[in-house]
Amino acid sequence: MTWSSIPIATLGTPRIGPRRELKTALESFWSGQSDEAALLKTAAGLRAANWERQKALGIRVIPSNDFSLYDQVLDTSVMVGAIPAAYGWRGGKVPLATYFAMARGAQGADPDHACAHGHAGHGHGVPAQEMTKWFDTNYHYMVPEFTADQAFTLASLKAVDEFLEAKALGHHTRPVLLGPVTFLKLGKSKDPSLDPLSLLHRLMPVYIDILRRLSANGADWVQMDEPCLVLDLDTATQLALRDAYGMIAYALPHLKIMLATYFGGLGDNLDTALALPVAGLHLDLVRAPDQLDAVLAKAPRGLVLSLGVIDGRNVWRADLSALLDRLGPVVTRRGTDHLQLAPSCSLLHVPIDLELETDLDPDVKSWLAFSLQKMDELATLSAALSGERERVADKLAASSQAAAARKASPKVHNPAVAARTASIASTLKQRDSAFPLRAQVQRRRFGLPAFPTTTIGSFPQTSDVRKARSAYAKGTLDDAAYERFLREETERTVRWQEEIGLDVLVHGEFERNDMVQYFGEQLSGFAFTKHAWVQSYGSRYVRPPILFGDVSRPSAMTVSWWAYAQSLTSKPMKGMLTGPVTILNWSFVRNDIPRSDACRQIAFAIRDEVEDLEAAGAAIIQIDEAALREGLPLRKSDWKTYLDWAVECFRICASGVADETQIHTHMCYSEFNDIIDAIAAMDADVISIETSRSKMELLDAFRTYKYPNEIGPGVYDIHSPRVPEIGEMTELMALARQRLADGQLWVNPDCGLKTRKWEKVRPALANMVAAARALRSSVQEAAE
Fold first, then answer.
1. Residues 45-64 pLDDT 10s
2. Same domain, 583 and 534
3. Of 727, 712, 780, which Cα lies nearest the Cα of 503?
4. Are 644 and 684 found together in one domain?
5. CB-based burial of residue 441 (10 Å sphere; 0-12 exposed, 13-18 middle, 19+ buried)?
6. Environment class of residue 761 by beta-carbon count within 10 Å: exposed (0-12), middle (13-18) or buried (19+)?
7. What is the mean pLDDT of residues 752-774?
8. 278, 310, 337 - which closes a domain
């Protein structure tokens, strides 16, 4: 039987540009080197190019409003007028200065936050909104803020404007909106008694207004993203979904809604999803392939099913023949009229074009697919399923050959690594003594003052550092000159830290390009790219390593730089490492073995480095696990399995040192209440966490749990270019002291300082040290 062609859809595409054009435009605007018109022109050009690329690749359902200057959740907050009073918005069109103040904070007439005419505009002198991870990805979103008297109003027509923009260019798109229930669930209120879902009936008129305007301008389908449907939902949330989509269906009976779920399976929310009055349902069949049978058994015949069969979260080439075997019966059963083929989620999370990578190992490259290649895979599947298999036979054969070659490649499999991780003795997973005894030994060894000060690790990577690294990579700067440059930068930074009075120093990491890439480049089993950027937040992009094979550590990675830095000072110099869970979660991970097995391999490699650092004399070693919580499965029933092996991997790294060696770790924006047992089980001597934007609320979990070890709650929000005042930091520490004992508390920034500028870092850290000293004095005076 010959079928009509199955439509191909994308849920969203990378917005950054193949050459990071958006980053360049944003940072030029923020620095005052270009105006608003130039920024918006670049943005329009990127959107036009995205639409045209998709059309050329055969995508029939092209999204609009998937582009953002910073973050799609922030765009939604602006769309519905959820702009906190602190940002000074009084209605009307929301200025870019207000938008970016919400994203990045603003301080006075700082040119980083100037509008097109150089004025600070609305919202100056305020911190940024809280930022956290988008579900279990490494993308960050700006957390919506709500109040008990929250009013919503249509404050941005961006979704309509971009639909019309695409239409004028000849593209009939499917606009994308973040669904109202997920939007509310992602937000928070300063009033703990306010349930954001209670605001749904105030919010829905704004959603209906924007949908009505889209429909009036010709939109026949709108994609509503409700990834909350893959979470554990209570009855109130399920009812909220029914209320929201019932209101939409009543107000706009002819508008078709594609309800998009992703990052997991619907599970016990399947009946809720199928009961909603929508025309289509998108399924993530990469994360949750087993849900397809249940959906097919229950889905109404007229419901359009969007089958997310190509991985939108990872870079591996699909085995198209295997997918065809799986999808063929689905097409036979339902026909093609009510099916679409799509990536599992938005392609925002993968790089744009594999063809830009000209230096990758040819074998590894043959196993990969980036955004454009994934769209081509979808086109191949559609053709084959629509009776044109012969036309795409060469592509199908190439896919099968790549899958077989990867499976058999000696570049992937190392028997020695497999043997080492096959059996892990209990002695490899615990320190010699419990924390109270270790703490006594360490306090005698270091003699640090109350509220000791330190930083998280990195210092600003200036243009001079980047130029030197680039010159070295190109061969125009030789080994000796490059090392001399790095030593000078390191020494300057060590001397400056001594000058301002930090208690525990770091070497600044000027030799490191990225906290994961630096280690991956020195470990076996990793591949690296030149242009495979993905967005982390705003203009912060990363090139995740590609973990393609078994992992081992051929030689020491950090010891020589630590030893040089320690030779410059009598103060403790931290050894700085990235932990195995973070390396795993911030890489594109192989999908041919369990993630837990890959993580254990990395853990043993990092353990070797920890032991070498200690042997060289390092007394304090920080093993960053910034991404531990972001790897947490979305369903609570899966948490224990993940946390057990994640904690085990950290302990494998840290357990080989003596009691007197102090192990630190660092974690990024996280809610800790529900995983505090696991954090305690890691048994790090000191944990530093990002708390400044939450006003120390994240410490509540540690207080309730009576966490015994030491903690450095961040008092300096490094993700905003503001310079916090001394009083601001002392107030934050006062809040921390309400939650934890003085003897537990360290004073440090929220995160590393790599992305900041020295002109902001110097006064901010000087203020931080001054705040710690003021706190010591006040505590001493109170005691006397």
1. 999 999 999 999 999 999 99
2. yes
3. 712
4. yes
5. middle
6. buried
7. 95
8. 278
Length of the chain counted residue by residue:
784
> Do 146 and 98 have their domain in common?
no
Do β-strands 534-537 and 540-542 pair in parallel, antiparallel, or remain unpaired? Answer: antiparallel
3-state secondary structure of 686: strand
Contacts of 120 (CB under 8 A, 6+ apart): 97, 106, 108, 109, 110, 113, 114
Name which of 79, 76, 189 is nearest 130 in CA terms.
Answer: 189
Per-residue confidence (pLDDT) for residue 190, from 0 to 100: 81
Are 122 and 239 part of one and the same domain?
no
Which residue among 122, 349, 666, 719 is the active-site one? 719
- At 467-481, the pLDDT tens digits run 999 999 899 999 999
Angle 72-79/158-168 helices, nearest 10 degrees? 110
Secondary structure (DSSP) of 599-613? HHHHHHHHHHHHHHH
The answer, yes or no, to whether residue 121 has pLDDT greater than 90, is no
Q: Where are the beta strands (DSSP E) in 496-626?
A: 526-527, 534-537, 540-542, 546-547, 575-578, 588-589, 620-624
**Residue 722 counted as domain residue:** yes
The C-alpha atoms of residue 730 and residue 718 are separated, in whole angstroms, by 17
Indicate if 445 and 517 belong to the same structural domain. Answer: yes
CATH code of the domain containing 568: 3.20.20.210
Q: Facing residues of 188 across strands?
A: 145
The model's confidence at residue 160, banded by pLDDT at 50, 70 and 90, is very high
551 in the same domain as 509: yes
pTM of the shown model: 0.88
Cβ atoms of residues 281 and 303 within 8 Å: yes
Does residue 2 carry a pLDDT above 60?
Answer: no
**407 lies in some domain:** no
H helix runs in 265-368, sequence order: 270-275, 291-298, 320-334, 362-366
Does the active-site annotation cover 719? yes
Res 559 pLDDT > 60: yes
pLDDT at residue 132, rounded to an integer = 86
179 and 98 housed in the same domain? no
Count the neighbouring beta carbons within 10 Å of the beta carbon of residue 237. Answer: 20
Task: Give mean pLDDT, residues 654-681.
Answer: 89
Whether residues 534 and 471 fall in one domain = yes
Instruction: Please count the structural domains in the chain.
Output: 3
Please report, in angstroms and rounded to a whole number, the separation of the first and last CA atoms in the chain: 90
For 117, the domain range is 92-128
Domain finish residue from 261, 278, 295: 278
Q: Let me know: does 546 contact 488? Beta carbons within 8 Å.
A: no
Q: Work out the burial of residue 4: count CB atoms within 10 Å of its CB; fewer than 13 is exposed, 13-18 middle, 19 or more buried.
A: exposed
pLDDT value at residue 424: 79
pLDDT digits 0-9 by tens, 385-411: 999 999 999 999 999 999 999 999 999
**Beta-carbon-side half-sphere exposure of residue 577 (alpha carbons within 13 Å):** 32
Q: Can you tell me the distance from the alpha carbon of 284 to that of 287, in angstroms, rounded to the nearest whole number? A: 6
In the prediction, which pLDDT does 782 show?
85
Please indicate, yes or no, if residue 658 is contained in any of the structural domains. Answer: yes
- For residue 113, is pLDDT > 70? no
Please calculate the CA angle 718-724-726 and round it to the nearest 5 degrees.
130
Q: Is residue 600 part of a domain?
A: yes
Each residue of 625-649: pLDDT tens digit? 988 988 889 999 999 999 999 999 9
Residue 280's nearest CA partner among 258, 252, 254, 247 is 258
From residue 739, how far is each of 518, 677, 700, 742 by CA, in Å? Answer: 36, 17, 7, 10
In the numeric block, the tokens 């020589």 are attached to: 560
CB 646 within 8 A of CB 653: no
Q: Which amino acid is at 132?
A: T
- At residue 164 the predicted structure's pLDDT band, cuts being 50, 70 and 90, is very high
Report d(CA 629, CA 585) in Å as an integer: 10
Angstrom distance (rounded) from CA 36 to CA 118: 10
